Amino acid sequence: MSISSTLLENAVDQLATLPGIGRRTAMRLALDLLRREPEEVARFSEAVRKMRDEVRYCDVCCNISDEPKCAICRDPNRDASLVCVVEDIRDVIAIENTRQFKGLYHVLGGVISPMDGIGPDDLHTRELMDRVQQGGIRETVLALGGTLEGDTTGFYLNRKLNEHGILVTTIARGISVGAELDQADELTLGRSIADRKPYELGVRR
C-alpha cells in the first residue's frame, strides 16, 4: 500500500497494531480521523491517553477501575460472600451483561499454563487467598473457560480453597469445551451462572 504522506503512513502503522485491525481497516480509520475537526481528534487522543495513564486495577478484585476500589466492589447491594473467579476483565463484562450474578469478582489475570511458563504465582491467586483468609466469603464460583488451562487452574484453586472450607462451585457446562467465556452469548452464559454446580460434579472427566 503506497501512501503519499509519511505522517498518514505512521498513523496507519500504529492503528494496524491493534488486534483485529488490518492495513485496509487502519487506513479507513486514519482517513476518518483526518476528516474530523481538530478538537474532536484532540478529545479522542486525550481519552485514549487518560485511559492508558490513569486506569488502574481494583485493590480488592483486580478488575479495572478509576479508583482504588472498583464500582462493583463498592456496591453495597452486591453479595460480598459470593465471589466469581474469572480469567480476565472481558469475562467480568460478559457475566455482568447477563444480569444474573449479584456477587463480587476476582480477576486472575490469566490461567495456569505450564507450556507458556505461567504458574499460580504469575496470577492473582495470592490476592484471592488473602481475601478468603480475611473471612466473609462462603462460596467461590469458578467461571473459567472450558480449556485444558482453565481446568488446570480450576483444579488448583479448588484444592487451595477447600483447605479454607470454602464452597467451590463452577458454572454449568453450557459453555462449549474449548470456548472462551467472552465469546458466549448472554443467554447461554446467564444460564451457566444460574445453574452452577459443586466443582467436583461440574468438572469435565
Would you write up a description of this structure?
The chain is α/β, with parallel strands linked by helices and 205 residues long. The chain folds into two domains: 49 residues, RecR Domain 1 (Helicase, Ruva Protein, domain 3), CATH 1.10.8; 126 residues, 3-Layer(aba) Sandwich (Dna Topoisomerase Vi A Subunit, Chain: A, domain 2), CATH 3.40.1360. 44% of the residues lie in helices and 13% in strands. It has nine helices and seven strands. A five-stranded mixed beta sheet has the order 4-3-5-6-7. α5 links the parallel β3 and β4. The protein is elongated and about 65 Å long. The mean pLDDT is 89.
Give the helices and strands, then pairings.
Blueprint: H1 6-15, H2 23-35, H3 38-54, E1 56-57, E2 64-65, H4 71-74, E3 79-86, H5 89-98, E4 103-107, H6 125-133, E5 139-142, H7 148-162, E6 167-170, H8 186-194, E7 197-198, H9 199-202
Parallel strand pairs: 3-4, 3-5, 5-6
Antiparallel strand pairs: 1-2, 6-7
Helix pairs in contact: 1-2, 5-8
List keywords for this structure.
205 residues; alpha/beta; Helicase, Ruva Protein, domain 3; Dna Topoisomerase Vi A Subunit, Chain: A, domain 2; 2 domains; 5-stranded mixed sheet; two-stranded antiparallel sheet; 9 helices; 44% helix; elongated
